[in-house]
Amino acid sequence: MRYCYFLNDYPLRKIFSVWDDTIGSRDSIYVVQTAPNVVARCILMTSDPGDLVLDPTCGSGTTAYVAEQWGRRWITIDTSRVAIALARSRLMGARYPYYLLADSPEGQQKEAEVTRSVPKSTPTFGSIRQGFVYDRVPRISLKSIANNAEIDVIWDRMQPDVEQALRDLNAEMEGFPCPHPVTSGGRAGKLLDFQRQEEVRLPSGETALTSEFLEWEVPREQGTPMTGKTLALWQDARKALRELELLERELAKPRSPVGEEKVNAASRSFEYALESLNDFIEDPSSAAASALV
User: Fold this and answer.
1) Which residues fall within 8 angstroms of residue 35, CB to CB, at 6 or more apart?
2) How many Å apart are CA 158 and CA 147, to the nearest integer?
3) What is the pLDDT of residues 210-250, one digit of tens each?
4) Which of 2, 58, 136, 213 could be disulfide-bonded to 76 (CB atoms 3.0-4.6 Å)?
5) pLDDT tens per residue, range 101-135
6) DSSP type of residue 48
7) Could you tell me which of 138, 60, 124 has the C-alpha nearest to residue 93?
């Protein structure tokens, strides 16, 4: 599979000759009542705002109801007084969305906001034949992304946060005993070993540490979080590692009061904590039993 297309990636879809989204009218009040979306699609395909729509078989008044909603004038006829009474009550009690006329000062201003352009300064006359201000659904393609003039501004604003988050993640994963498989980039198929500080050369010629994520290697999905005994053992091992690193830095200083005995003791404590964690990960039942002995 090369591409995965989700329903919410693009909220509109092309309409073909087969209409599989039109069903019978719900909550019908008349015996031969048509679904409003069927009538609306026919009116929108064949007329413009301000045009006159004629329905010689009024019925429940669906055609007049939809025509009024979409800014069309209408005439509807029926021989039945029952149908006329139903249509009249339906139209008199209907509530419609509010639309802005394109041929109005407010419409010109809203059109400029929607299209991100300069508002027009031409005179307006309130003509409904100019249509309404319609919402736009952007179609994002690789070309539109490459030609986006704001991409450099977005990069300058967001990239420092991304780099800081990556540094925080690598610092948090330092010493983690479980290797992580890389699924993308030049190291795809290899394992990150968070306990080894070794440099490797990427296919691009750059170097990277075997214990650190690169930006494109960070998993998009959250893994199973550590809980209970695993989390407690991990915290113990991490605490022991921090204490060992602190003592090693103090020992490297001239005239340090820290002796090698303390460093060796801290090293043994870290090795014991790490071994306990690894044993529990490999076999939780045996590790728990040995801890009780």
Assistant:
1) 22, 23, 24, 25, 26, 62
2) 19
3) 888 888 888 776 565 556 777 777 777 777 777 877 777 77
4) 58
5) 999 999 999 999 888 788 898 999 998 888 889 88
6) -
7) 60
pLDDT per residue as tens digits for the range 18-73: 887 777 666 777 878 888 888 999 999 999 988 999 999 999 899 999 999 998 99
Tokens of 49: 């705002």
**DSSP letter (8 states) at residue 216:** G
Partner residues linked to 54 by β-bridges: 75
Calpha distance 197→179 (Å, rounded): 13
**Helices (H), ranges, 57-210:** 62-69, 81-92, 105-115, 142-146, 151-173
Q: How far is CA 166 from CA 158, 170, 183, in A?
A: 13, 6, 17
